[in-house]
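Progress against Task 2.4 (sequence-to-structure conversion) is shown through the following example record, which the project officer requested during the mid-term review.
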Amino acid sequence: MNANSPEAPGRIVLLTTSHRVAPGLLSWPAWQALHAADQVLCADGAHPQLPYLREAGITVDEASPTAEELVDACAGGRTLVVVATGEGEPVLTDGLARLAGTGRVAMPELELLPASYDLPGARLLDLVQVMDRIRAECPWSSQQTHKGLAKYGIEEAYELVEAIEEGDRDELREELGDVLLQVVFHARIAEDDLESPFSVDDVAAGIVNKLIHRHPHVFGDETATTPEEVKAHWLRTKAVEKQRSSITEGIPLGQPGLALAAKLASRARTAGLDIPLPPVEGIGYELLALAVRAEAEGVDPEAALRAAARAYRDAIREAEQG
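Structure tokens generated for the chain above:
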């Protein structure tokens, strides 16, 4: 059958785009389909792609035909491109599927053509937009400060650690999201600072630069074939960056005691310093000695104590049930 004969069913192209990609940045197959189409339709007159399509010389008719009307418009072998709205035109696609299912209609060729694709991490843009709106419109969120949110950062970090130790994948995904929320929330608050504002892009740029600089074996000319060599690169570049006068600088003293003791021991061991423990008796110094011993043996004393505490909790519950 000739493609332009009255009996030819034609072709319908459903063109989808991502709102996370800048309007006008479409794939080459999409531009080819748009330029070759007999008619281009879009139900949303405010669709962000329309100004760029018209600038490229493409006529776009603002219309929302039914499935039957669209099939009829394809008669004679015509090609129609439908620029999908954000919802993806579910009513239209359901109608086309229903028509095709009857077997009584000569259906045109149907094609779903993604014109732009989300890159990995694209949903982070949604998070930034949602957080921006919440900060502007929510009575509680709009009043929050870095200090006011600090306790939530600590809580979410502990909940993340618990999810990791419990091995719950669903809980892990959720807790990672809660930690990420804290980062985005603080970055949004920082935008409102009058003296030294910064944004989530500044935060991301800072960590990107740090990662590249501290991985010369990946992004530079250095070589590293073992985890130990990677750690040596990291410590060497970090020492140059920080220019600290003491290996203890940068260790937060507000962290849990066992973790603090292990971190101090780790810094001393990495620096090659053999520092004797304070010759003082007492539970605190006994715990210090245990933490140093655990670190030397490659054991996280905080994680080990939590594991023991969970076992103790289970024993308590069994006793209660008995």
